[in-house]
Amino acid sequence: MSNPNPDEHSYDRHRLRQWLAGDAYAAGVSRRVMLRLLAAAGATAGLSAGSAEAAGVPGIVKPLPEEFFTVRGTNAETNWPALRGTGYHTPVDRFFVRNHTTTPVLDADSWSLRLWGSGLRGGDTVLGLDDLKSLPAVTRSAYVECAGNARDLYASQQGEPVSGTPWTLGAIGQASWRGVPLSAVLRRAGLTREAVDVMPRGLDAEYVSGGVSVGRVRRPMPVAKALDDVLLAYEMNGAPLPPDHGHPVRVLVPSWVGIASIKWAGDIEVSAHPLYSPWNTDVYRLFGPSYPPGGSAPLTHQSLKSAFELPWNATLPANEPHHLTGRSWSGTGGIRSVEISTDNGTTWHHAHLHDTPHPARWTRWSHTWTPTTPGPTTLRARATDTTGETQPDRSVHNTQGYLFDAVVAHPVTVV
Ligand SMILES: Nc1nc2c(c(=O)[nH]1)N[C@H]1C(S)=C(S)[C@@H](COP(=O)(O)O)O[C@H]1N2
Ligand SMILES: [Mo]
Q: What cofactor does this chain's UniProt record say it requires (predicted)?
């Protein structure tokens, strides 16, 4: 798989080596706590159950009607049929929510963002929302997708056990985000040439796993990505960010794993040393027999996927044309083509594509099918991206079920 950004590639290699050598310093988590955590959770099971999740309370502010969402612990998965006809951007009322704890309801007037750390000159910088809004704004379309999206397919389609929230395909949403480039804020705060990592941290509650707090949600990214296309977003689809999606300000890291897009940003550490958090060491890396003993490099880009805007086990009348619709996306390239099979993968037809390719955005597609034979069958959508990668028949397993990319067999019955 090609990596479009050489700086990200060297980030992967160098940080992994440093982490494995114990060279990165632990911000907020002592070695002792990490060891307890690993003992409690099992070396690769990682962080799985928060206290709210264990209690089965979603802790989400917006309504979660059954036709739009499937609630999974502290999270809400978007039902794909609810996206049919919604256009390029996902309406907030059906945008998935992934919370480690619960949505904090923050006051925009008293909110501030602190930038600090050894990668800045001249001390801390504190910015209020008005300060951010006084900087030149940009608007950008991008999806946010959980790295564990489609995790359940490892088990249901491939018969392989994985740990974590059993998402089907609905842990993705795409919005139009307005905000300030993180690069502008970093430069204003006195970014130095020595800076290597940038770590935003949320204002939501500390995350407790296995009875041990690992602190507030945070994950470092290399300075090259931070200076590239990352936004500090304060608007979503033309309105102030809603509480569940990070009000008043979230980080938006296009095409990367959703965990990078820290909600309710409260501070950003800018460091001249490699940074560490549980979210780039114990979770959001690939573990398992196909990967190095210490796991893969920390995850960056999302994987290639496709989904139909149709209920699972949908019933479709025979001898009538059905306008099948769906979307495909890839974090490493735009979508170049999508093929559809309505006969369990025997024959394939090119779908009609409705959007231009972009690695941070999905492409809508459609295909008209007139079934003639009653009975059960499976529909498949197989996308190819602009790097030439095509969705495989089987996804390479990892214990935490990240980055599923195989063609999904979507069951339907013709009547
Ligand atoms: N502060 C904070 N930021 C966070 C999270 C969180 O729990 N707390 N969850 C992350 C994960 S794992 C994902 S997939 C995305 C989900 O964004 P959404 O809830 O707006 O869809 O937010 C990320 N940012
Ligand atoms: Mo996620």
A: Mo-molybdopterin
